[in-house]
Amino acid sequence: MTEPVEVFVPIDSAARSVGADDVAAAIGREAAARGRQIRLVRNGSRGMFWLEPLVEVAASDGRVGYGPVGADDVSGLFEAGMLEGGSHRLCLGKTEEIPHLKNQTRFTFARVGINDPLSVADYEATGGLAGLRTALEMTPEEIVKVVTDSGLRGRGGAGFPTGIKWKTVLDTPSNLKFIACNADEGDSGTFADRMLMEGDPFLLVEGMAIAGLAVGATEGYIYIRSEYPDAAATMAAAIDIAYLNGWIGSSVLGTDHAFELYIRVGAGSYICGEETAMLESLEGRRGMIRAKPPLPAISGLFGKPTVVNNVLSLATVPPILAQGAEAFRGLGVGRSRGTQVFQLAGNIKHGGVVETAFGLSLGQLVEEIGGGSASGRPVRAVQVGGPLGAYLPTSMFDLPMDYEAFAAAGAMVGHGGVVVFDDTVDLSRQARFAMEFCAEESCGKCTPCRVGSVRGVEVIDRIIAGENRDANLELLADLCETMVDGSLCAMGGLTPYPVRSALEHFPEDFERHERLRGEA
Amino acid sequence: MVSKTTRSQPWSEERTAAIVKRHRGERGPLMPILRDLQDVFGYVDPRAIDVLAEALNLSKAEVYGVVTFYKDFRTEPPGETVVHVCRGEACQSMGAERLAKHAREQLGVDFGGTTADGAVTLEQVFCLGNCALSPAVLVDGRLKGRIDEARFDEIVAASRVEER
What we know:
The structure holds two protein chains of two kinds. Chain A contains 22 helices and 16 strands. By secondary structure, chain A is an alpha/beta fold. Chain A folds into four domains: 5-102, 3-Layer(aba) Sandwich (Glutaredoxin); 120-329, Rossmann fold (3-Layer(aba) Sandwich); 332-422, Ubiquitin-like (UB roll) (Roll), CATH 3.10.20; 427-519, de novo design (two linked rop proteins) (Up-down Bundle), CATH 1.20.1440. In chain A, the strands form four sheets. Chain A has a five-stranded mixed sheet, covered by helices on one side. In chain A, strands 13-12-16-14-15 form a five-stranded mixed sheet. A four-stranded parallel sheet of chain A has the order 8-7-6-9, with helices on both faces. In chain A, a hairpin with a 2-residue loop joins β3 (55-59) and β4 (62-66). In chain A, α10 (201-215) packs across α13 (311-323) and α19 (469-486) packs antiparallel against α21. Chain A is globular, with a radius of gyration of 24 Å. Chain A starts with a strand and ends with a helix. In chain A, 58% of the residues are buried. Chain B is α+β, with helices and mostly antiparallel strands. Chain B folds into two domains: 13-69, Arc Repressor Mutant, subunit A, CATH 1.10.10; 81-163, 3-Layer(aba) Sandwich (Glutaredoxin). The longest helix of chain B has 15 residues, at 149-163. The two termini of chain B are 22 Å apart. The chains are: A alpha/beta, B alpha+beta. Chains A and B meet through α1, α11, β8, β12 and β16 of A and α2, α4, α5 and β4 of B.
């Protein structure tokens, strides 16, 4: 009897959102009807969403991809000899040779899209636990030094050096310390945390266990937003398996180190992605932000020293420990070391994740890798770094993707999300939305954010309506300054960025309505 | 917003007490308890606030404050199907505002509202993490991508049939 052919259909929720489950079911039925032995594997997504559902078939010399596959295509694919890697109009050739994937440097995402996310055997066979095993041989100081030397900066958006944060927690004496993973990925245009949790959940478990060893923390919490039900379910299953296998628990891999890990699911609040609001929520309170200092590293969850890191920051630690600081540090430019997991989103032809070394330009990312707009119309604006990020025109496409270059241009790389808009976008509406969003999601603790955002919507409405334009523009500039300088956290402090950038780069959109009325 | 695997159960004080008991030993148990109440009953019944305040040694005001802060926690039962329409920027770039308008008109309710026949509750959400397959909606915890007006109507019609 011949070995069953391995067929891969992603279980990632985005792939499922366009019919991956139906495709998997159809493949199962078709194989049974034809008496073919297959082993159907539900893998993570490769992150090329325009090709989802992307079906792969294992051949002796690599995996052959087909996509985007609909359930209706399955019969034809079998007819064309898909199980032997046969040619078909949906055949993409060797998946690894698709230029979009081939040109990436997958460091954090090395395993995402390849394995069954919950297979212990697959995880260990592809280098899983190597980082944790290395860390168990080291002192806490040595682990922190490797992370510091790697140049890893927080992936949640602020870009704070991870090693320095860990050092602060390590150096703060306490009988109880925590690792809190921020998986409240609320920024529109970002989905890398979700993909990692759904596609390689053990990596996050391993990263958190290493963080625990590094700073002397014995408990970890993953705060996952409720909008990600699949990610929460996959992480919960992964944690159960990790306990069963002795990776975590009272004895981490048979040592006398303990690390307990728990999941907490959010309840629909954007501000809980701000680290101190997240801590409040974990403690069972309203997600009101805390004034800093004290830093969470010194007084965080339940008043104890706490490492608060983003999913991707923690998930990047295991390969750094396994391969050494230089493997990461050797990539990137300036002070932006290593890779960044960019996410191409919105009106884009080739949307998905692109993990690559820092330093390529915004234009390369959008036009070359992303293939321009999905609608086929000219790209007019991109918003980088989420709802609090600046809107940039195509004239700024030369900007290199690194933290410092973006900051110098009044923008931010943030979490690496890039949302593309074609020429039908009206930036005055987007500016208004930024204020509206802030008004909706503000925790209400500080006045510039709580009241400023509401006034911001009103002022922008008056500008759009052409009422006292100059006076209202001046008022808006004033309001933005107050919000930037006077807000307690990034919610109120950064909301002016999309507003100001829209005004600066697209002033014509704020006159359009007046002009239209004039023409009428 | 976590997936609804079975039809929501009617509120019961015993069931609420059992949920409280399960989480009592955890650090910061209020959120996990509210999360479970929401997932089991489809909403947080105001009667639960007294039970929680008593069990966790909190004031009713504290519990009420938490319930009302988070958008997921409703205080009334939702419709048979809950549809969240994403209005994040990525979805906006692909016509989400048009879809949001269509959804409200088609169902005859605003966001947060439930259709008169109790079949559908419509909610807005800012990002479902499906930003490369916009516009996105979440139907009873199941993510759907590339949703235009026609697909939206199909999904709503299908959920109505399913509920019968």
